[in-house]
Amino acid sequence: MAKDPVCGMYVDEKTAEFKATVRGTTYYFCSHSCMAEFLAPEVEIRKLKIAVAMGAILTVPIIILTYVHLLPNIINNYVLFALDTPIQFYFGLRFYHGTYDAIRNRMGNMDSLIALGTTAAWVYSTVVTFFPSLVSFNSVFFDAASAIITLILIGRYLEHISKGRASEAVRKLMDLQPKLAHVIRDGKEVEIPVEQIEVGDAFLVRPGEKVPVDGVVTEGHTSIDQSMITGESIPVEKSVGNEVIGGTINKTGLLKVKATKVGQDTTLSQIVKLVEEAQIGKAPIQKLADRVAAYFVPLVTVVAFVSALSWYFIGNIGLQFSLLAFVSVTVIACPCALGLATPAALLVGTSKGAQNGILIKGGDYLETARKVTAVVFDKTGTLTIGKPSVTDIVSVDETGPDTIIMLAASAERGSEHPLAEAIEKEALARSLVVVDPSEFEAIPGKGVKAKVQGKTVVLGNRKLMAEIALDFAEIERQIGKFEKDGKTLMFLVVDGGLAGVIAVADTLKEHAKEAIDELKKMRMDVIMLTGDNERTAKSIAEKLGIERVFAEVLPQQKEAVVEKLQNEGKIVAMVGDGVNDAPALAKANIGIAIGSGTDVAKETGGIVLVKEDLRDVVTAIKLSKRTVRKIKQNLFWAFIYNGVLIPIAAGALVPFFGAQVYNVLPFLAAGAMAFSSVTVVSNSLLLERFKP
Amino acid sequence: MEKPKKEKTGEKARIVVSVKEINCTVCATAIQKQVMKLNGIDDVKTAVMLNKVFIDYDPKLVDSSSIRKAIDRTGFKSYMTIEKKQ
After folding, report:
1. Is A108 part of the contact surface with chain B (CB cutoff 8 Å)?
2. Which of A92, A414, A575, A633 has its CA 20 to 30 A from that of A113?
3. Which tens digits make up the pLDDT trace of A148-165?
4. Residue A474 buriedness (CB in 10 A; 0-12 / 13-18 / 19+)
5. Is the ipTM of this complex over 0.85?
């Protein structure tokens, strides 16, 4: 079954009468009208293509006949009229349609300017052709009229293609979701469209298949390629209890998954939604451009009239050149490039980010991220993993690290203390066999006492050691250093003798140091913020090379610290987890939520990082800088096209080159117009080359 | 001409309408003006690059089909709508 993309009805692919393939994907429709509606833009583009081709075929002879005198003058004009009229009123009909809409909406648009300019040229030339006695000078401008329309049509066509390429990234994201899923209903496997999966449904994903929606693994073990969603290049191991993301590829094993998020709630849908909505959250830079664009059409119409009238009455350059001045100005003036400058770069930039697991929620965030001077990191869970793990094992007698861990893990078995978890994880990592203790006694706040494999094992802190009066002067220097580093120590006593010491600490995330070095290289102030004690904070900060640390900050004070930094004149980016650090993230000039995983939508913060990788903070800032630079380049080009060329079209060059310059200006104007939007969009596409 | 006073019931919904070829922001303002005339419209935003119009409206005061009709009145053809949860 497939879903009709227009009305949402389900259609059987095998019997479907109406289907269409658009960009490699086949769609099925319930009726002809749904299909026609869906294909509307495709039909439109085909029409445009035909218009461009026909326009070019007719325009070439028009230009040849205008400049190379092959035919007698009297016949020549009639031939030109015959060639140009279909361009003006058939292939150029869209401009009249647009003008009609513009009049109905009581506002100018680009179509009305093109229609106005070319109609003026056509009417004048037609009068010259049929009533040559009415005008003193009998050359015609069919060449200008036809060339303008053809060039503008070429421009539209190219713009359509480049816009399509720019929005391809978003479409590619949406196409990641498979169309069908294998759901288990009443104990039997059935194939249903992805849209019909409900929360709680169990479904199967075979090796090589894509995960249809977000869910939790209930059976099986596999590695999954998540690169398309998170940008991680290495496949991720998944087993029972792990979350899988819709759209990712199952590489090796068969999985049974319970659906947790479907439809609009899936990570993929949320990412697409964020990228799309970033387009409508307007950047301040764009608001200005839009305001200028809104006044453009009326303003340009006035400039066109004024320049034509002044050249005719004051400049005395004659009717035909005055008319060409009018045509040139109207044609050159579409503010399209100005209107596309920001959204085009923004779309390519944010899509590029999304492909790498960096979600930028809007143009305003991008503009702020670019200006950041200080990056504040939350410590626990952001710079560090957030869960303690075993960092050092000191073997005092001949017991050896493996046995120390085995005995400690066995003694702690059943305890849910975070330190016990750290030891258990270490035992698992060393693939040790952990046994059940035959006796077990917890000593609250101090440790445990147990019997493991016939041995009396005591695992506890310094307090407990003091109680059993054990002396460890020999290793005092070594363990003193651990404590200075903010590590927690656990002493293992076997049958009354000290066997070893286990040091446990929260460890740094893998790429934390690299990320911070890179930020410093970018001349940013790097600051750490934590609720932890001074000693632990300092030791972590030292390892990372962070000089400024705010320790022992209560969660509700984090916001105030951000404010303090802002008062120092810094533009602050706060990096933390989106839930616990939400107020600080909101207070900062830009909040960067890290490691959202599948909870993309819940996150506060203008930038959401899907992965836990801190290097993405650097990438996000770099991408922002690059995108804003593109926006500025685009605005510069748009300004050249719209701002600088208007005075030229209005006659700024006439004093230098004479009125003859108007023999070329209309062509130049149309050419500039045709390529202005394409320039801006193509320039934006260069952002595709951005590499994190 | 006096503007009709905007009513409010507090309900919120968003509709995303795909429109064929929005060439530029100037054209987009026509859509904006036309849709804003309807009662119960909170906000109209256009995404030129996506050829989409995002409309926040009050579903108790106006429905999606009248929004679509308003867009079609501007000469742009709307061809696909997706309703989004808020």
Report:
1. yes
2. A633
3. 999 989 988 888 888 888
4. exposed
5. no
